[in-house]
Amino acid sequence: DPMLRSGEQVRWFRALIAEHDNTNAALRWAIGRGDAGTALRFVRALGHYWSQRGRGEGDALAREVLPMQPPEESLLFAEAQAVCAMMTASGSLDMESVRGPLTDAIASINRLAADGQAVHPIASMAESLLAMFDGDVDHALAVMDPSAVGDDPWLRAAARMYRSTYRANVGRMDGAEADCAEALAEFRAIGDAWGV
Considering the entire predicted model, what is its pTM? Predict the structure, then answer.
């Protein structure tokens, strides 16, 4: 999934599109066997691809994985559970149906991630998304800030873009234009066609 956030993303999207049926079949196999570890790893790895390609089958598969319990507590599985909950809710925007698992995943990520440790890009936005849904503007903006100044150039650009859009949507224009310009410059530097 890191290649989907690079200048090589078009090539890697094409490769995943070509393997779409195989990856989904493998995930269905893991779900059918009750193999939560494999299923959660698949959702974590495919979440960014699914979010960029549009809603549909990925959301339905994530919904099937959501109730599965990970084999152990780890940052990887906490991220996977957050991605799973966000993908499940993304088509319908029904945050209430995933609030429990999403809140648990956010708490685990906050507990397990060391200061400054990179977190999966979709999982890193989970807390701000939940705060936005709840109408907690200050908290939503505050939890975007670390990503907007972090080490990961793609996540930094994405956080600035989302922060800019959110500020504009809630009428807090201070910094929105600068965030947008900085995000665009970073996406261009990365070679990210989606962000541009």
Answer: 0.90
